[in-house]
Fold this sequence. Notes:
The chain is mostly helical. The chain is 44% helix and 3% strand.
Amino acid sequence: MSTNAALLACLLQVVFIFPAVMGQLLVGFYNSVCPRAESIIREVVQNQSKTNPFVTAGLLRMHFHDCFVRGCDASILIDPTKNKPSEKSAGPNLSVRGYEVIDDAKKRLEVACPNKVSCADIIALATRDAVTLAGGPNYSVPTGRRDGLVSNPNDVNLPGPSSSVSDALQAFINKGMTLNDMTTLLGAHTVGVAHCQFFQDRLFDFQGSGSPDPSMDAALVTKLQKLCGTQSKPLDSDPAAFLDQNTSFVFDNQFYNQIIQKKGILQIDQELTSDSRTSGIVSGFAFSGTGFTQSFASAIVKMGSIEVLAGNAGEIRKNCRVFNTRRA
């Protein structure tokens, strides 16, 4: 059996099936208290995606940025005020998009079944629906999350686009995730974009060398230099590049094929192919789109269970942007 085939066989064994109950979460949690909850959220995502092809990338990023701070508790949704900043005002979250999807879904759910569906569950379900609409897997989402009561920008400490594999892996390990989970979830970049400010150093003066990053395809370097402007004369705006330049709005495994071809936009993405711990996983996913999507379904469900609030903890917000009770 070839190395790729063996890896695929292993992936199929360990990631295709995951339990219906993860911790205190349960698939079908709203079946009795709000039977149309999931269909309402799906309709909202479908409507939003008709006019905004970036919905999938926005919701995936929101879900990740929420879960990796205080757990999946919708703390990222709280609006800052003049006297009280929130996670939303932290640097890494300033470019998070998709809040209007959550607002619309919450408004409709409050009409259908008031005070039943948490904002944290809306994020998880809307993300699943957006992934499915973009051609990705249709996986079951355990629900029953409650919304958090704290949103502090000082808690936001996320791996960045220039993180090393080791640094990013430590962030994942700290949240109970594995090397395979990390490599899989970075595959969400198949539908993402990155602004020039996050990779411009790779185009001109990589790590003080005075030259572009040698791990990036030379033709891509030239293309991105034209897009972003030069270091001495940057463009007034901050343009963005697709992280998957082939099937930019389709949730598939092409991201992995491109980083193998040295066409990774972000440093962390490209390093997945050069680090011996992740290169084999990358090759396996590039070889098998099915292997990737099945692994992704397992990894994102696992991520969605990080440090969740359940039972009587937290609250069910009436408005996802504010706590039910004003806090000093």
